[in-house]
Amino acid sequence: MLEVLRRVIQEVNGARNLDAALATMVRRIRKAMHTDVCSFYLYDPDIEELVLMETIGLHSRAVGRVSLRVGEGLVGLVAEREEPLNLEDAPAHPRFRYFEATGEERYSSFLGVPIIHQRRMLGVLVVQQSEKRRYDEEDEAFLITMGAQLAGVLAHALATGSLTRPSLPGGQALFTGVAASPGMAIGEVVVIAPPADLNSVPDLVPTDVEHEISRLRVAIGRVREEIKAAGERLANRISAQELALFEVYQQMLSEAALSQEVEKRIREGQWAPGALADVVRRHVQYLERVDDDYLRERAADVRDLGRRVLAHLQEETPQIPDTFPESTILVGDEISVATLGEVPRERLTGLVSVRGSSTSHVAIIARAMGIPTVLGMVDLPLPRLSGARVVLDGHRGRLFVRPSEELESRYRSLIAEEEALTEVLEHEQDLPSETPDGHLMPLMVNTGLAIDMAVSLKKRISGVGLYRTEVPFMIAERFPGEQEQARLYRDQLESFSPLPVVMRTLDIGGDKDLPYFPIEEANPFLGWRGIRVTLDHPEVLMVQLRAMLRASCGLDNLQVLLPMVTNVVEVDDALKLLDRAIRELGEEGVSAKRPLVGVMLEVPATLYQLDALAERADFFSVGSNDLTQYLLAVDRNNPRVADLYDACHPAVLSAMSRLAEESGRLRKPISVCGELAGDPAGALLLMGMGFDALSMNAPSLPRVRAAIRRVSLKAAQDLVQETLALNTPGAVRSHLFARLNEWQLAHLLPPRD
Predict the structure, then answer these.
(1) Annotated catalytic residue: which of 38, 312, 648, 673?
(2) pLDDT at 26
(3) Strand 67-69, strand 49-56: pairing
(4) Element (H, E) at 661
(5) What pLDDT, in 10s, does the model give residues 369-380?
(6) Helix crossing, 2-14 with 18-33: angle to 10°?
(7) Hey, which residues does 443 pair with through a beta bridge?
């Protein structure tokens, strides 16, 4: 059954459109399960009914005409309960409903499973049998697996506009990912195709067919030369049998095979990369289905050849187009900082990526630039999105493809409200962040690049609460040298002097790899990251510490922050290296003062080591993002569990309150530099808990300042006590909204559903 399942999935994924995919699926399922009927009912949210979309075994005239409400009949019952229903005598069930058009009165047995995509019920998949039959566990498991596969196909079809049935909405689709940078945008998709990825080539119509054919032939010719040269290099090192594989490759590339078929597709209206990808995928799917072992193995060869030819085609095809729509939503499998820099800033209104996370360098820069961004959108069908109109919601991690007029109008209003609020708040940004009862709440900024434009905010902030030193490392092609780093750090320290600048030592690992220092791990967030990496590579940390100290000479506003501390010994080892760096520079004639050193509290273990850490550190900084992730055991960058990640979880708030209280007892300054600090409601909670400073991305400053200036410290403290008594994140969020609404500050929060 597993082999059958694999083949059906391949055929469905290889179908050119939704109709073909559905037809293939119902026929293959009926045959595989040796049953009489297989049908698919699609849920239409506009009319709130399940519509029969495809069947084999029922009357074909019923397709598109038979529909039923959720809860109506056995199919409706499956949709209502969102769980499988397995009946040996279906007509005897009290919910059985007879539809004359289907002719289903002849069928006794019934097995139905819901089709669910990201918690949305999309439809129901059903098999039926004329004689009484109890479908066994293997049958049920098979159908559930097919349903899960169909969910992805349907989601892609919605996004690409393939759902053209008259009873369905106009192709609007919703995809969700990880909210990486707040804000909302409406615009047109520009797909950035990754190099040599056959599954991510956009569909484009060629402007010059002969030119496309010509460059295809050139690309194939280059691959033939590469393979010939590779075969000649290996001729004396491999057997004649293995050498014959190179001849097989040459035959596959011959005029009569690959080239001819791709050229045919180009003449039918596909550009060369798209035509190549289609042909290669079709051949691969065919070869993987055949029973002959030798031919099945050739599928990998065909795929490899396709990638090689595509790579040469893409050398001539700029990944970044020459012109961009006025409101460009850049979409790609993975968007690099370099790519971001090639799009005119005035036209770039949003970013969406299949890969990436809220702490990746692209996300960091997007937040600094104020560009709405959603990453980790794993189910996004890239190839057919180019040119699509979309609505991007960076607050809630949503992308609406081909939105309805009503939805677009609603988001236009929300965007206008945000712009108006930003303009209003701008007028008080030079005022102190002081509560009505006289409590001063220092606000600091998170930086990482000059692009942050934080220097212009100098008179509005109390310093830099977090300078991410890894960002310059990420955009380099090697580890920056000491002098190079010293210049970068000096610019930051001088720009903000005399305000303090907290520089975090290199924090890589987890989801922040360096291109020249990759870290491959099965579980990177519990692996080699932060101070664990730099202590294992003291040559890297020493260069960085020396550069920081050198840069701070004469300014004395440097503070050093150690990330991902788990053990007190790690702090001891880092301090020894710092003292050594000071001594070495002194021997070289550079007089550097010992800066204040802080520990980042983001690993739960540090909550229980505060006394020991306080003996060694001058201050604490809470990384609320990672602390939340580790307390809740939720990868915040995994869209499938992103809903479970919530900084307002009662356990997280309780931990934060304890940290503030304990730091007060130990007389150690403590700040927060996570996303919670940049949320107006979160900032009020943190102020009420007793944190000494809040650090955030520059775009978050106006709303946080506005909230602090309108709520007394006493009211914030009361809010903390009320909130800590609540048991669920939902209850906390609702209470915070209610309180801010009472204080007429609800407009400072992100829009709600």
Answers:
(1) 673
(2) 87
(3) antiparallel
(4) helix 650-666
(5) 789 999 888 767
(6) 160
(7) 694
CATH class of 209-314: mainly alpha
Superfamily name and number for 1-160: GAF domain (3.30.450.40)
Residue 139 is encoded by which pair of tokens?
């049958």
Catalytic residue among 312, 361, 395, 649: 361
pLDDT in tens, 588-629: 999 999 999 999 999 999 999 999 999 999 999 999 988 998
Q: How confident is the model at residue 235 (pLDDT cuts 50, 70, 90)?
A: low
β-bridge partners, 241? none
Burial profile 106-137: b = 16 or more Cβ within 10 angstroms, e = fewer = ebbbbbbbbbbbeeebbbbbbbbbeeebebee
For the question of residue 553 being annotated catalytic, the response is no
Alpha helices in 427-508 (DSSP H): 470-474, 482-496
Burial (CB < 10 A; 0-12, 13-18, 19+), residue 284, is: buried
Q: Collect all residues with Cβ–Cβ distance below 8 Å to 484 and sequence separation of at least 6.
A: 547
* N- to C-terminal Cα separation, the chain: 43
Q: SS3 for 43?
A: strand
Task: Give per-residue pLDDT as tens, 429-463.
Answer: 889 999 999 999 999 999 876 545 655 788 899 99
CATH 3.50.30.10 intervals, the chain: 188-193+320-406
Q: How far apart are CA 534 and CA 551, in angstroms?
A: 20
Quick one: pLDDT at residue 167?
32
Phi, psi at 463, each rounded to 5°: 140, -175
Rounded Cα distance, 36 and 30, in Å: 7
* Amino acid at site 18: L
Tokens 């729509």 sit on residue: 325
Q: How far apart are CA 685 and CA 695, in angstroms?
A: 14
Q: Which of 60-69, 348-357, 731-740 has the highest mean pLDDT?
A: 731-740
Supply the pLDDT for residue 616.
97
CB atoms < 10 A from the CB of 59, how many? 16
Token output for 400: 């609406």
Instruction: Identify the three-state secondary structure at position 86.
Output: strand
For 383, other C-beta atoms within 10 Å of its C-beta total 20
Tell me the pLDDT tens digit for each residue of 318-329.
556 668 899 999
Determine whether 518 is exposed, middle or buried from the number of CB atoms within 10 Å of its CB (0-12, 13-18, 19+). Answer: exposed
CA dihedral 15, 20, 22, 24 (to 10 degrees): -80
Q: How far is CA 417 from CA 107, 392, 414, 420, 709, in A?
A: 57, 16, 5, 5, 21
CA separation, residue 673 to residues 194, 626, 732 (Å): 34, 11, 21
Amino acid type, 435: T
pLDDT attached to residue 240: 57
What's phi and psi for 216, nearest 5 deg? -65, -45
What's the length of the chain? 753
pLDDT one-digit tens code per residue, 643-681: 778 899 999 999 999 999 999 999 999 999 988 999 999
Q: What is the pTM of this model?
A: 0.67
Indicate the range of 85-94, 615-624, 703-712 predicted with least confidence.
Answer: 85-94
Annotated active-site residue 673? The verdict is yes
For 388-440, how does the pLDDT look when each residue is reduced to its tens digit (9 = 90+)?
Answer: 899 999 998 899 988 888 999 999 999 999 999 988 998 888 899 999 999 99
DSSP class per residue in 620-643: EEE-HHHHHHHHHT--TT-TTTGG
User: Which DSSP helix (H) or strand (E) runs through 443?
Assistant: strand 443-447
Q: Where are the beta strands (DSSP E) in 158-296?
A: 173-176, 178-181, 184-192
Domain 188-193+320-406 in CATH 3.50.30.10 = yes
Token pair belonging to 406: 């009503």
The residue type at 185: A
CATH 3.30.450.40 boundaries in the chain: 1-160
Residue 164 has pLDDT above 50, yes or no: no
Closest CA to 156 of 432, 431, 429, 382: 382
